[in-house]
Design a protein that fits this description.
Blueprint (H helix, E strand, L loop, with lengths): L7 H9 E4 L4 E5 L2 E4 L5 H10 L9 E3 L23 H16 L3 E2 L10 H8 L7 E4 L13 E4 L2 H10 L1 E5 L2 E8 L8 H12 L7 E6 L1 H5 L2 H9 L8 E3 L4 H7 L8 H12 L11 E6 L6 E3 L7 E3 L13 H14 L14 E4 L7 H11 L10 E4 L4 H9 L2 H8 L2 E2 L20 E4 L14 E4 L2 H10 L6 H4 L1
Length: about 475
Amino acid sequence: MANRPRTLYEKIWDAHVVETRDDGTSLVYIDRHLVHEVTSPQAFEALRMAGRKVRKPELTLAVPDHNLPTTARLDTSGNRLPIADPESAQQLAALERNAPEFSIRYIGATDAEQGIVHVVGPEQGFSLPGATIVCGDSHTAAHGGVGALAFGIGTSEVEHVLATQTLLLKRSKTLEVRVDGQLGPGVTSKDLILHIIGVLGTAGGTGYVIEYRGEVFEKMSVESRLTVCNMSIEAGARSGLIAPDDITFAYLKGRPMAPKGEDWDKAVAWWRSLATDEGAKFDKSIRIDAGDVEPTVTWGTSPEDVVSIGGVVPAPESFADTSKQDAVRKSLDYMGLVPGTPMRDVEVQNIFIGSCTNSRIEDMRAAAEVLRGRKVHPNIKWGIVVPGSGLVKAQAEAEGLDKIIIEAGLEWREPGCSACLAMNPDKVPAGERCASTSNRNFVGRQGPGARTHLVSPAMAAAAAVTGRLTDVRELTS
């Protein structure tokens, strides 16, 4: 029925379908395309070999982030320092060469606006509500925090979007995650999304686009919403969405690449119409009481392996499914943990505050607030704070957050993906633990043999000053 109530996802989908085939696949128009150095070289080379141009270069933005070192990029004379790793250097050089050749805007490694693509997109107003946004990176879902239908794609799909500004897709099912009530002291958006993944499991969202609804999300800042949507992929979902509202519009207004003047007014009028209609049906719904969420940490090698900071390492036998029991045994062996160990007793040696999940100015402020007037514990061998962009870095420095971080004993770095993944020099040593604000705790994710515990920025800062996983409320109450 044409006038039936529709969800936010259905409205964006319907507005972008060019054609639907008999087999159920649809050709979908793509509004925005972000590219970085890792998944784009093959796509550009394929275009070059086929003699094709980029269909709409003004709709693509190129930003280096994965392979960039987060140490100084210029020497004392202002010259660019070489990239030590040959493969990283090659990929970065390819992006720097390919973007201008194909008339794509490129934000260079030493530009003030450089950063992680999923931080830069919303920050520049390139990511907009109601838009379809893709990138050769699984955490593209983050842009759902501004109300965009955003998802990661593979290298062949990167080529397809560059050449045609479209993709062949199958419509996803809809999953409502409603959280009402009020989050307690010390509980952040990162704790909430870890809790949600624990409830859903890493396959609970497979085949779905999640829409996060309820008063908790309605009150959240855009930065917190970006954190939530960023980790939707960790529950198996294609993407995550939060309806755009006055908070979204205030965040985007005046940003460099956002609409201006009359175009802005027209855009906002359409964006307001995107909210899920009263009576719209979701394929699946779950409800969570915000009061049930506590500061949360991971214990295993999957983002679903979560427990509140007051909990203990679970026993394999506590899980009903035998395959899950086997997975837990392997996880505990890799993590070097014993069932029944209180999470508060788990010592850490490394701290990482950054990544496309938690590297925005609010994250820097939250970490600095815990670190203020405190010193890093002797257990901590290595600890870095990596802002998500040069603009975040400049703002943090204007607020004096860098001084708090440095005086506490952590390093203040240049923007980039950093220790979220082992594709640059920022790696966690084998056998050592890291309290990390990133999004994945897979085997070897932060380096061969690295043991990762996912936490919020405030919880990572608490671990830095205590040398163990710590309930941040003990330090802030």
